[in-house]
Amino acid sequence: MTRLSGAHLLIATLKRAGVDRIFGLCGDHVNAIFNACLDQGLSVIDTRHESAATHMADAWARVTGRPGVSVVTGGPGHTNSITGLATAWHVGSPILAISGQFSTQLRGKGASQEMDQVGLIRGITKWAAEVTDPTQIPATTARALQEAISGRPGPVHLSIPVDVATAEVDQATIPDVQRLPPPPAKQADIRAAMDVLTRGARPVLIAGSGVFWARAWDLLQRFVEMTFIPGFTVGAARGSLSDDHALGFGYADPLLNPTAEEIRRADVILVLGKRIDFRLEYGGLFDPTATLIQVDIHPAELGRGREIQVPILADARDALEQLLIEAGRHPWKELPWVHELRQRRRMAGGQWEAEEHSEATPMHPLRLIREVRERLDPESIIAIDGGDFAQWARLGLPARSPGHWLRLGPLGTVGAAIPFGIAAQLAKPASRVVVLTGDGGFAMHGWEIHTALRHHAPIIVVIGNDQGWGMERELQAAFYGRTIGTELGLVRYDKVVETLGGYGEYVERPSELGPALDRAFKAGRPACINVLMRGVASALTKANIERYTRGQTRNELT
Fold first, then answer.
1. pLDDT the model gives residue 114
2. What's the CA gap between 470 and 488, in Å, rounded?
3. 478-484-485 Cα angle (round to 5)
4. How many helices (H) and strands (E) does the chain have?
5. What gap in Å lies between CA 489 and CA 41, rounded to an integer?
6. How far apart are CA 83 and CA 59, in angstroms?
7. pLDDT at site 179
8. Which among 139, 339, 414, 447 could disulfide-bond with 386, CB atoms 3.0 to 4.6 Å apart, if both were Cys?
9. Start-to-end C-alpha separation, the chain
10. pLDDT value at position 3?
11. Could you tell me the pLDDT band of residue 548, with boundaries at 50, 70 and 90?
């Protein structure tokens, strides 16, 4: 009988589940796992920092809809990976984060890097376990993957001690991994929702991440086209209903999309696969007299923060299938409300025209964004970082395709957009991938450009360089009348990328930007366009300053 190491059983189980690559960083505790990848033909995307590995696994899941897998060493490798794991937790991204660990024989003896790794991350994972028996690796790995993709998706974790990974055992049975199907919505709830929607004079639909993870964008489009209900998107659902669609009205965030202010006037709101959290002002975005329908796969989310008149416990895809059948029994027509929204959208479209076409230097962020937008097609992927520059990107860049508009999520993990972009490029090699980040954010994961070079991921990183921590500079000045720790000075990040082997250009004048972007796209390798930009407070920052001056709670700054 063939004998295999625990590491070989792990990789065999991942391959059977459809995993074709891992993102990771080598170390003593996981060298056996990396070695097994060589034997079994599993690709290793090796990063320069462990948090980048978990960020890449997260982005891989967001772009492909399949679980991403990270593998890092124990101790500090494990702790370094936590930020990426927490980022995935907040967005419900299905990743399997594997960490090596000290030998089980040394437990309690003061071993190097000894810690309770599982206990450390239990609060930011759906499920976490330590594997102490090599024969149980296939079953435990399969269960972890099943937990990641079933119900509301999310990250899971395995800690695998080094002696468990290297131990040789008889060939074990490798189980299949299947998503546990959620129960369908109650038909009475579907009928109640449809009854409310047919009577609404100003209905809207807000699609959240649950639509993306359920792969339900085709049904979403069919539903809005059948019912003429205008749709907004948020989170991972951005692009599930294109912003260019006649019934797609963009980002469900009034600070970044003036048309979304009209949601406050809606009399019926269908919230589909979206938490009623800070993005929706904890329900304050809705008229108190409006009727709310909420569809969510996680029962704890139904009615959290706001009373729901029609709660529907269901997967977004199942609910849309049932809603479409029920909608087919009713006549529908386009309401005057839709015309009002289109008028508001046209008005909003011209609001920033002067800034987008300005030739002033240093250039306005929207002048930069316009040049990027003109070079994107529906298959392009954009990864938007945090900070004030990112808010202008969120305002000015449309979402046209599901999984092609990547944002940090509620944790607001500045710097994560670069590893996001690399994973996206590896997942969709034929697509243009553009990362938009500030100069502060670039420095956090700029060394991953080296990862992009080694693994042939020709991302274009566009830096909006205002020579500092722009958002914090604006907030400190408003809150305290002075600033500290916010100035970075001018750094030639383009030269750093050139030295690594990529393509770099430094841009000061608006007329130079378009040609520089064109050259970067033609370079065929990772590129950095470092753009000297004027620091301009975004709508989000202005809103937080206004809240502060009124003595209200400051909003989340992501």
1. 78
2. 10
3. 125
4. 22, 20
5. 46
6. 14
7. 84
8. 414
9. 55
10. 84
11. confident
**Statement: residue 1 has pLDDT above 80:** no
- Residue 503 CA to residue 64 CA, distance in Å, equals 28
Is the whole model's pTM more than 0.85, yes or no?
Answer: yes
What tokens does 432 get? 């243009």
- The per-residue pLDDT of the chain, averaged, comes to 94
Closest CA to 18 of 170, 181, 146: 146
Q: Which amino acid is at 338?
A: V
Do 138 and 8 form a contact (C-beta atoms < 8 A)?
Answer: no
- Residue 123, helix vs strand vs coil: helix
Measured in whole angstroms, the distance separating CA 113 from the mean position of its chain's CA atoms is 31
Burial of 499 (0-12, 13-18, 19+ CB in 10 A): exposed
Alpha carbon 298 to its chain's center: 19
Calpha distance 323→320 (Å, rounded): 5
Q: Kindly indicate the confidence band of residue 171, based on its pLDDT and cuts at 50, 70 and 90.
A: confident
For 76-110, the DSSP string reads HHHHHHHHHHHHHHHHT--EEEEEEE--GGGTTTT
CA distances from 133 to 14, 176, 279, 386, 392 (A): 18, 20, 44, 42, 51
Ramachandran class of 23: left when φ > 0, alpha when ψ lies in -120 to 50, beta otherwise: beta
Could you identify the residue written with the tokens 């600033």? 483
* Position 106 confidence tier, pLDDT thresholds 50, 70, 90: low
Q: What is the pLDDT of residue 557?
A: 46
Which DSSP string do the residues of 141-164 spell out, in sequence order?
HHHHHHHHHSSS---EEEEEEHHH
d(CA 59, CA 417): 9
Q: Of 2-6, 59-63, 134-138, 188-192, which range is least confident?
A: 2-6
pLDDT score of 241: 97
> How big, in percent rounded to 5, are the helix, strand and coil portions of the chain?
45, 20, 35
515 cis-preceded (ω within 30 degrees of 0): no
* Alpha carbon distance 448, 466 (integer Å): 22
Distance (Å, whole) CA 50 – CA 522: 31
For 343-362, the pLDDT digits (tens) are 999 988 788 899 999 999 99
- Domains (range + CATH), the chain: 3-170 (3.40.50.970), 187-347 (3.40.50.1220), 352-549 (3.40.50.970)
Are the C-beta atoms of residues 294 and 149 closer than 8 Å to each other?
no
Say if residues 204 and 263 touch (Cβ distance below 8 Å): yes
Distances from the Cα of 18 to the Cα of 67, 107, 176, 217, angstroms: 9, 34, 10, 23
Arithmetic mean of pLDDT, 113-125: 91
Do 394 and 417 form a contact (C-beta atoms < 8 A)? Answer: no
Q: Residue 247 is which amino acid?
A: L
What is the bridge-based pairing of β-strands 503-507 and 433-438? unpaired
pLDDT of residue 386: 93
